[in-house]
């Protein structure tokens, strides 16, 4: 065997060892890959260097070293252009998206994952498809759109259930559990937790088993089952102390701090939260830092440690402004939304290819689970009414049905007056209560067959099938009066809230969007004419 052959064999062995160590110890993978990169450069082997750089980028990302991760990605981009392999290009976009996302650069992350999805469709790479769906869902999650996040994550879970790949299956389960906890579907999290547990016992990712226990503990905590929650969170921490995954450790510590606050064991709560802050600061997750500052401010208030409460409240508000600026910068703009909608259609190609006997013979329990997930993805987590996705899904159907049956249909668009002033003056917590109470009033003012959806922010849309315009105006006046008369001072002595409502009745509109636009125009007139009033487009 020649020297170059021996070196090529050594290079292949280094990369194989790096892959083997990636799950149990990324630091060892980095050591192997640095040696592999040097040897690949010496041999002029671009393809093997690309594989080594990819593993380096993934390892640095997993350990929270984003600067080193981006350096590996920059070199991989050069190699990717040279090699021109679709699979390598997909892996590159997936890894780059993760690095962007970890740095809270959501727009670039979404672009990378959309590119990855397109490649996955073109080469029928199911693993890439699943990972990219998880990524796109995470961008929605970061933008506090948990229902849309769940839609993408449940797609990933459905495919992962039919791949036989335990790593993809457990990763998908984790993302869905996080969405469901955010949506307040705690019983469903516990049901999912039992269903998926066997897969986690078999995976090599011990930190994922810890996350699974942590999400279970979070659900139990929300349900008031504190001792059970503490048990599972300590089970998670016992595992996490043996790993190097900072995200898993931080999430675990946050939940431990929260459960000890609930148990009124404040000294231990403070210790866990301080440790969580230290770990989160080392990799700079804005969302987790916001959580820890909020919990520490709450703890300071409960224990009457005013200095602690003030300092953490200040940190929270400073970081919240930074996070809001980042979200505004990377807002899901129209072009990106359009790209995602196009992908919805394109990805059906891959979905059709992957349908098999296992999918067709899916058990009734699985079907019920997916139906539950679907319901959660159509619900606004703050108010419990439908979300924008539900409206987009149901309104065109209802519009066409009423038109075909020559049945009346009216639309109400409800907007809280001067809501920004409410948030700025009294805080977002009280603002959330105003939105929640308004939704309750809407539910109490409508019939069982009416559809209520939170359109966005402080806006709601109501669809009233069978109601002519005059009836809809009466309903709108009833809602307006109830909002104005509500005893808002229970939240703050000076708080008052009113709403304006636009009403439109189905006429000669060409589609559902045009009918909604007419309601919006009527709402504009209500605002223009002084607010706290109802206007009709007729």
Automatic annotation (TrEMBL):
InterPro entries: Diguanylate_Cyclase (IPR050469), GGDEF_dom (IPR000160), Nucleotide_cyclase (IPR029787), Rev_trsase/Diguanyl_cyclase (IPR043128), TPR-like_helical_dom_sf (IPR011990), TPR_rpt (IPR019734). It catalyses: 2 GTP = 3',3'-c-di-GMP + 2 diphosphate. One of its GO terms (biological process) is negative regulation of bacterial-type flagellum-dependent cell motility. Its EC number is 2.7.7.65. One of its GO terms (molecular function) is diguanylate cyclase activity. Pfam families: GGDEF. Gene3D superfamilies: 3.30.70.270, Tetratricopeptide repeat domain. Residues 407-538 form the GGDEF domain. It comes from the Bacteria. Signal peptide: none annotated. GO terms for cellular component: plasma membrane. This is diguanylate cyclase.
């Amino acid at each position: 065997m020649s020297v170059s052959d021996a070196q090529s064999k050594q290079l292949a062995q280094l990369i194989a060892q790096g892959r083997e160590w990636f799950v149990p110890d990324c630091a060892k993978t980095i050591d192997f890959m640095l040696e592999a990169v040097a040897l690949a450069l010496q041999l002029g082997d671009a393809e093997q260097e690309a594989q080594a750089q990819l593993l380096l980028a993934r390892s640095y990302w997993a350990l929270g070293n984003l600067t080193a991760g981006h350096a590996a990605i920059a070199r991989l981009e050069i190699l990717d252009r040279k090699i021109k392999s679709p699979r390598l290009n997909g892996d590159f976009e997936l890894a780059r998206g993760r690095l962007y996302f970890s740095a809270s650069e959501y727009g670039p992350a979404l672009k990378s994952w959309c590119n990855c999805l397109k490649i996955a469709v073109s080469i029928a790479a199911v693993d890439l498809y699943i990972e990219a769906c998880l990524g796109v869902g995470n961008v929605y999650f970061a933008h506090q759109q948990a229902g849309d996040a769940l839609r993408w994550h449940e797609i990933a879970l459905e495919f992962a259930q039919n791949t036989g790949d335990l790593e993809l299956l457990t990763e998908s389960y984790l993302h869905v559990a996080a969405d469901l906890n955010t949506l307040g579907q705690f019983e469903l999290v516990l049901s999912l937790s039992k269903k998926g547990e066997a897969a986690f016992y078999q995976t090599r990712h011990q930190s994922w088993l810890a996350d699974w226990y942590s999400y279970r503990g979070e659900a139990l905590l929300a349900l008031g089952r504190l001792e059970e929650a503490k048990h599972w969170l300590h089970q998670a921490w016992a595992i996490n102390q043996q790993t190097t995954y900072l995200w898993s450790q931080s999430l675990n510590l946050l939940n431990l701090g929260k459960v000890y606050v609930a148990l009124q064991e404040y000294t231990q709560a403070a210790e866990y939260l301080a440790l969580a802050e230290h770990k989160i600061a080392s990799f700079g997750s804005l969302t987790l830092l916001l959580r820890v500052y909020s919990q520490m401010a709450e703890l300071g208030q409960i224990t009457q440690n005013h200095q602690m409460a003030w300092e953490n409240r200040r940190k929270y508000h400073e970081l919240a402004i930074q996070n809001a600026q980042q979200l505004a910068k990377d807002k899901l703009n129209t072009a990106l939304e359009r790209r995602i909608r196009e992908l919805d259609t394109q990805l059906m190609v891959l979905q059709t290819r992957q349908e098999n006997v296992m999918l067709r013979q899916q058990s009734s329990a699985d079907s019920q689970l997916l139906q539950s997930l679907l319901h959660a993805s159509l619900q606004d987590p703050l108010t419990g009414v439908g979300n924008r996705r539900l409206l987009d899904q149901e309104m065109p159907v209802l519009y066409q049905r009423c038109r075909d049956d020559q049945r009346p249909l009216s639309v109400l668009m409800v907007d809280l007056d001067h809501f920004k002033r409410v948030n700025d003056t009294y805080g977002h917590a009280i603002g959330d209560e105003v939105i929640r109470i308004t939704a309750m009033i809407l539910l109490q003012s409508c019939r069982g067959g009416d559809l209520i959806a939170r359109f966005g922010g402080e806006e709601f849309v109501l669809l009233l099938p069978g109601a002519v315009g005059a009836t809809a105006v009466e309903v709108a006046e009833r809602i307006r009066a109830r909002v104005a008369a509500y005893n808002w001072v229970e939240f703050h002595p000076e708080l008052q809230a009113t709403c304006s409502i636009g009403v439109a009745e189905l006429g000669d509109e060409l589609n559902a969007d045009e009918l909604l636009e007419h309601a919006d125009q009527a709402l504009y007139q209500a605002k223009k004419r002084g607010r706290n009033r109802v206007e009709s487009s007729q």
